[in-house]
Specification:
Layout: H1 21-47, H2 68-78, H3 101-106, H4 112-115, H5 118-137, H6 143-154, H7 157-161, H8 171-186, H9 194-210, H10 215-232, H11 237-255, H12 257-261, H13 263-275, H14 297-305, H15 308-324, H16 326-331, H17 333-341, H18 354-364
Helix pairs in contact: 1-5, 1-6, 5-6, 5-8, 5-18, 6-18, 8-9, 8-10, 9-10, 9-11, 10-11, 10-13, 15-18
Length: 365
């Protein structure tokens, strides 16, 4: 009688498990995801086709743009060395600060009609990136359902209108920047730890370069995501901390030391603006601009998600995401504060609810 370890009997005729199909299965899954992402990108561009009529152009003589700020950015795209007197207001950026990324990137497209497609490309790229993040967060969910939920949550009427061809403004670039920043934390379980760092770097640079009118808001958003990345990034904590510190130094160089040191004072001014405590010796012109007129909660929700049913579904999905993946929910906190909170004061901030809507609907689905 043997008292040693009992070895299980092996049937020599039993088939050996085939593990060579694992790479093939991953390739097929990646191909299906890429197909759905490409389809969403094309659909997002189709949603941003201009209405019938003259094609919008960045040429001031032809016109056709859907926003007055578009002509300001169009002139900067045509005159890269033009003075800041084009927008001579009290809150104009200092002369030594570089202009927004919108006119700089538009100059890469020679035709004035083609330049108006830069915001739609940015908006469609943001939706495609949100679909990729949804596939990563919920790998077991059916691909068609994830793609449909991501498109329905992100392609809201307000965000679609403010990133359509002819709306030559920075809304599409800002949403894409915020999506890249959130992706640095949402990709916490990815096998390639360099991708979150690349997304974080791209988001910091693009946001600082795009939102040239609000460097204090850029500093606050980037500081939050840099701190979150240093704590939640996959891989070694030392590498994540070094990456966050290096990007913080890059952010200071992009914004300028003056903008960084004056940020606390501007934060207090932002709070007064949101609270409606701005006392001016003359009527505030912001009250005459539709996108800056404060409204009720229902109006802000309608602008952010297109209606109460979608907003409630996003809220339920956000709660489910918070219970299962708290780090991912923390990455979407700026979208919640800007898209839902600040939109009560200025409806234009409702575009920032697009990432929250996409991930929230996918989590519910």
């Amino acid at each position: 009688m043997s008292w040693g370890k009992v070895r299980p009997s092996v049937n020599p005729t039993s088939p050996i498990p085939n593990t060579s199909r694992a790479p093939e299965h991953r390739l097929r899954s990646a191909a299906r995801r890429s197909g759905w992402v490409g389809l969403l990108f094309v659909l997002s561009l189709l949603l941003r086709i201009p209405p019938p009529g003259p094609l919008p152009s960045t040429d001031p003589e032809r016109g056709g743009l859907l926003t007055l700020d578009g002509y300001y950015y169009a002139r900067l795209a045509a005159e890269p060395t033009g003075p800041d007197a084009l927008r001579d207001v009290l809150s104009a950026p200092p002369p030594d600060r570089p202009h927004s990324a919108l006119p700089a990137l538009a100059r890469l497209l020679p035709a004035p009609h083609a330049r108006t497609w830069l915001p739609p490309l940015a908006g469609a790229t943001a939706i495609a990136l949100l679909a990729l993040l949804s596939f990563h967060l919920f790998p077991a969910a059916p691909k068609p359902l994830v793609a449909l939920a991501a498109l329905a949550g992100a392609a809201t009427p307000y965000f679609t209108a403010r990133s359509a061809a002819g709306w030559f403004d920075t809304d599409g670039l800002l949403v894409l920047s915020l999506t890249l920043l959130a992706a640095s934390t949402l990709m916490d379980r990815i096998r390639r730890p360099r991708l979150p760092a690349i997304a974080l770097a791209a988001g910091v640079v693009l946001l600082a370069w795009s939102w040239d009118q609000a460097p204090d808001v850029v500093l606050l958003l980037c500081a939050f995501h840099l701190a979150l990345f240093a704590v939640c990034a996959p891989g070694r904590r030392r590498s994540a901390l070094i990456t966050a510190l290096a990007l913080a130094g890059t952010l200071v160089l992009l914004l300028g030391p003056a903008a960084v040191f004056s940020a606390p004072i501007r934060w207090l001014g932002r709070l007064d603006y949101l609270a409606g405590n701005t006392a001016l010796p003359y009527p505030n012109p912001a009250g005459l601009v539709e996108e800056q007129i404060s409204g009720a909660w229902g109006e802000a929700t309608l602008a952010a998600h297109g209606g109460w049913p979608v907003a409630l579904a996003v809220a339920v999905g956000g709660v489910a995401l918070m219970r299962n993946r708290r780090r991912s929910a923390a990455a979407l906190l700026p979208c919640l504060l800007l898209g839902w909170g600040a939109s009560l004061t200025a409806p234009r901030f409702a575009v920032f609810a697009a990432p929250l809507g996409a991930i929230g609907l996918v989590a519910l689905a």
